[in-house]
């Protein structure tokens, strides 16, 4: 059994020559901890930790949400004693993510991605020797050839395609029943963001993107930690006939502004069948797909601005 902790920051002062903003002070302190092992060990004595077991965080259930308690350094206990002592349970992030507050969801996602990366990079791919983690956990080094390994993220594009009046949503068979989302896909090596969007839209629904506009980005913990880069895109006028790639998608369709606006208003989507079909619903607020769809509903013309 392994219990693993990630440090969060808790330090009141940082020496500097002029008054820096709280954000800059905090950022420089965190950067210092990556390089200064002694400072990092000292911080661990007073730091607050989230606890994980097999990549599942320790959470407490409270009505319709989960709370992610933070702890100071603990004595090593077995999992059942730890759960009893701290009045919580180790729960898969996939199950709990949407019932956490935004700050905890973001920190836990980051911590889990880092833990997963360390777990998968225990050996040097050149020498085959065990790699060694630095105190902060921000890199691993091969002691025999000094190669440094840094945590990596996989870029994924997510695109809401519109023809100006409707938007295109799709679902994979792995999605919960009835849920539709924007088109997503992993970037290929060597591709720009724009090329990845054009290729994914062509591959998945057979359409040619005319214009695209960057919206926002998000770290996403599933399946292995990705940087989701969200864009609005438009297709050429009159070229809206889709050819769904059934190897990648279960279904895709154009939805009207009214249909999408109504689905967006449903805070608690019904997962029950109605008249033999599952009602149409959209990804939860925390997902960048939701933000992208909300932006389009509020300003459907935002995706048809000149490039
Ligand atoms: N936050 C959000 O709002 C949303 C997030 N997403 C996330 O976006 C991710 C990507 O979307 P998805 O449509 O599945 O992606 P793709 O359309 O690229 O198709 C997935 C396929 O790509 C291959 N693949 C898996 N991992 C990689 C990788 N690291 N690099 C290159 N190819 C890979 C696999 O194919 P094979 O097995 O044949 O090798 C996999 O079946 C999903 O994991 C999902 O979690 C999706 C929608 C909304
Ligand atoms: Mg896809």
From TrEMBL:
Would the keyword S-adenosyl-L-methionine be found if you checked this record's keyword annotation? no
Q: Which Pfam families match?
A: NUDIX (PF00293), Zn_ribbon_NUD (PF09297)
E.C. code: 3.6.1.22
- Give me the reactions it catalyses: NADH + H2O = reduced beta-nicotinamide D-ribonucleotide + AMP + 2 H(+); NAD(+) + H2O = beta-nicotinamide D-ribonucleotide + AMP + 2 H(+); NADPH + H2O = reduced beta-nicotinamide D-ribonucleotide + adenosine 2',5'-bisphosphate + 2 H(+)
**Subcellular localization:** Mitochondrion
Keyword tRNA processing included in the entry's annotation? no
Q: Which residues belong to any copy of the Nudix hydrolase domain?
A: 151-277
Assigned keywords, A-Z: Hydrolase, Magnesium, Manganese, Metal-binding, Mitochondrion, NAD, NADP, Transit peptide
The function of this protein is:
NAD(P)H pyrophosphatase that hydrolyzes NADH into NMNH and AMP, and NADPH into NMNH and 2',5'-ADP. Has a marked preference for the reduced pyridine nucleotides. Does not show activity toward NAD-capped RNAs; the NAD-cap is an atypical cap present at the 5'-end of some RNAs.
Q: Please give the name of this protein.
A: NAD(P)H pyrophosphatase NUDT13, mitochondrial
Q: Which organism is it from?
A: Balaenoptera musculus (Blue whale)
């Amino acid at each position: 059994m392994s219990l693993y902790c990630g440090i969060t920051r808790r330090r009141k002062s940082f020496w500097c020559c002029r008054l820096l903003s709280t954000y800059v002070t905090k950022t420089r302190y965190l950067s210092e901890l990556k390089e200064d092992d002694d400072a990092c060990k000292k911080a661990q004595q007073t730091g607050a930790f989230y606890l994980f077991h097999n990549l599942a965080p320790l959470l407490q259930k409270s009505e319709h949400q989960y709370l992610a308690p933070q702890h100071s350094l603990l004595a090593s206990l077995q999992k059942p004693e730890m759960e009893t002592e701290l009045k919580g349970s180790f729960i898969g992030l996939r199950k709990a993510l949407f019932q956490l507050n935004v700050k905890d969801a973001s920190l836990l996602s980051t911590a889990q991605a880092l833990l997963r990366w360390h777990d998968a990079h225990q050996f040097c791919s050149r020498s085959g020797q065990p790699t060694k983690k630095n105190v902060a956990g921000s890199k691993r080094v091969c002691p025999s050839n000094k190669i440094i390994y840094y945590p990596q993220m996989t870029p994924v594009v997510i695109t809401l395609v519109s023809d100006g009046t409707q938007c295109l949503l799709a679902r994979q068979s792995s999605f919960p029943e009835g849920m539709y989302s924007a088109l997503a896909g992993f970037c290929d090596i060597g591709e720009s963001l724009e090329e990845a969007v054009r290729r994914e839209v062509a591959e998945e629904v057979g359409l040619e993107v005319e214009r695209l506009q960057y919206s926002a980005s998000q770290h996403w913990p599933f399946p292995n930690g990705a940087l989701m880069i969200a864009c609005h895109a438009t297709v050429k006028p009159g070229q809206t006939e889709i050819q769904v790639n059934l190897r990648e998608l279960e279904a895709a369709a154009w939805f009207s502004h009214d249909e999408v606006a109504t689905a967006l208003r449903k805070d608690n989507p019904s997962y029950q069948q109605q008249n033999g079909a599952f009602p149409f619903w959209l990804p939860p607020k925390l997902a960048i797909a939701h933000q992208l769809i909300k932006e389009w509903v509020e300003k459907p013309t935002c995706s048809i601005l000149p490039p």
